[in-house]
């Protein structure tokens, strides 16, 4: 499994998790809010901000038909067209947001939902593309994005293993050389017990790609846990105020929570480390508090050491307790006082042959 690179940042299992703050619809119709979200994502420690680039007319039809109306869930009863009209990021905002992200020193890219969105993002020199879960079956879109030669991340919510492979094949056929996939559950919000995080390890083995998590749960537990199972990327919706009333606010992280995610994910990755049974640097000072053998009676030179003469106690300056039986029955080489560590030079004919 190779690393990928977005705007100079290596992403893969040997690198700290790459955290993406998904701005989505959380601008709530105000470019000032969108610009502030970019700043707060940077301040919280996110590696990138991600937009969504579509218009209501490029993602659905302006229809009153029942199949174009949402039934159940967070947006129950709404027409798709009306929801996307409210939620979409106006295209003339994109340049301001890309310029602002570069000004504050953070990476910005987007999920395009049709070829015209990719054309716009290419004009802005987007460093990567993200394919949303609902578009993972749009193989022509994937191929078109792949044709830019930019790194690509594909979310796999609702996709089975065959559909994931088809999306990967389309990306490769289109020319994508740096590809990652995200395990995802396309519920808004999604319950943690739907995530089946062990799937991440299987995806890594099955597809051989940098793999991460697009997390729609309401806290950070699932996302941080995913790092221990191999996730190299974490994507979370991000807002200034969960009570802001926008379409995505209610299942998004606020700034303090995003900061906690960035810190927690990095700590989890650092804690994984490598297989290592050696003594750790933080343990060195405590070695002296291990148990060892100590004399608990005064002895004269030539006295035989019996069980009532020594004990295994803390600290650890004497012979290790595993030597107890070998010490018993031997003579001391000189006078010793109680509370003296049992050392090799105090034992006759040590070490035993």
Automatic annotation (TrEMBL):
Pfam family, one: SAF
Broad class of enzyme this protein falls into: transferase
Source domain of life: Bacteria
GO biological process per UniProt: carbohydrate biosynthetic process
Keyword Cytoplasm set for record: no
Signal peptide: none
Domain (AFP-like): residue spans on this chain: 292-350
PANTHER family in the cross-refs: N-ACETYLNEURAMINATE SYNTHASE, PSEUDAMINIC ACID SYNTHASE
NCBIfam families: PseI (TIGR03586)
Protein name as it appears in the record: Pseudaminic acid synthase
Gene that this sequence comes from: pseI
């Amino acid at each position: 499994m190779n690393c990928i690179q977005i705007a100079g940042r290596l992403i893969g299992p040997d690198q700290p998790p790459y955290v993406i703050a998904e701005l989505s619809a959380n601008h709530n119709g105000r470019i000032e809010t969108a610009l502030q979200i970019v700043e707060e994502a940077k301040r919280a420690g996110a590696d990138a901000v991600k937009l969504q680039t579509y218009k209501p007319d490029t993602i659905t039809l302006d229809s009153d038909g029942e199949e174009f109306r949402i039934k159940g869930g967070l947006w129950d009863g709404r027409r798709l067209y009306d929801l996307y009209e409210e939620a979409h990021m106006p295209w003339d905002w994109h340049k301001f947001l890309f310029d602002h992200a570069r000004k504050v020193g953070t990476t910005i890219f987007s999920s395009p939902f049709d070829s015209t969105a990719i054309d716009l993002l290419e004009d802005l020199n987007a460093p990567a593309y993200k394919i949303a879960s609902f578009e993972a079956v749009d193989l022509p879109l994937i191929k078109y994005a792949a044709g830019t030669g930019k790194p690509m991340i594909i979310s796999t919510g609702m996709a089975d293993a065959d559909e994931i492979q088809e999306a990967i094949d389309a990306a490769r056929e289109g020319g994508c050389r740096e590809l990652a996939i995200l395990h995802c559950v396309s519920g808004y919000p999604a319950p943690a017990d739907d995530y089946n995080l062990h799937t991440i390890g299987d995806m890594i083995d099955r597809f051989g790609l940098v793999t991460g998590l697009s997390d729609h749960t309401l806290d950070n537990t699932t996302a941080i846990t995913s790092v221990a199972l191999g996730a190299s990327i974490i994507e979370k919706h991000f807002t200034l105020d969960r009570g802001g009333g926008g379409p995505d606010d209610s299942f998004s992280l606020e700034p303090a929570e995003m900061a906690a995610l960035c810190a927690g994910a990095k700590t989890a990755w650092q804690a994984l480390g490598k297989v290592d049974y050696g003594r750790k640097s933080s343990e060195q000072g405590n070695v002296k508090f291990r148990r060892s053998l100590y004399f608990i009676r005064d002895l004269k030179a030539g006295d035989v050491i019996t069980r009532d003469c020594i004990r295994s106690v803390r600290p650890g300056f004497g012979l290790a307790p595993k030597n107890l039986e070998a010490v018993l029955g031997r003579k001391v080489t000189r006078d010793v006082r109680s509370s003296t560590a049992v050392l090799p030079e105090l034992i006759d004919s040590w070490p035993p042959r």
